[in-house]
């Protein structure tokens, strides 16, 4: 089922070509997923207007995270490996967005430490926050955009 505002309250915002969702894993405070609205299986199949829209989204999102949480830098990845773990593969272009923090951030009484800052993020560091905090993260991001 395609993610929509009605089925996924974790939608942060959307543009003409992209939807942005908060990821359940909040090891990197504000970790999100940016999903192409159009069914597109490869970055090389993105249209120019989708790239332009994505560039505007990146500027808006990174600026908002600096304001909301004091993020130092950002990691963007488009891996799509999981789409090929079953047959037939069904890739869909999406980006993993990880804000990175040089200093600890405290939000809603929870301390977020980016222990791998300045390095590739470590696998297996999943950190789920309580639903109430998860929704407040979304609210704070929306307020900063």
Automatic annotation (TrEMBL):
Molecular function GO labels: catalytic activity
Pfam families in alphabetical order: HIT
All residue ranges annotated as the HIT domain in the record: 1-107
Motif (Histidine triad motif): 92-96
Gene3D superfamilies: HIT-like (3.30.428.10)
Full protein name: HIT domain-containing protein
Organism (species): Candidatus Woesebacteria bacterium RIFCSPHIGHO2_01_FULL_37_10
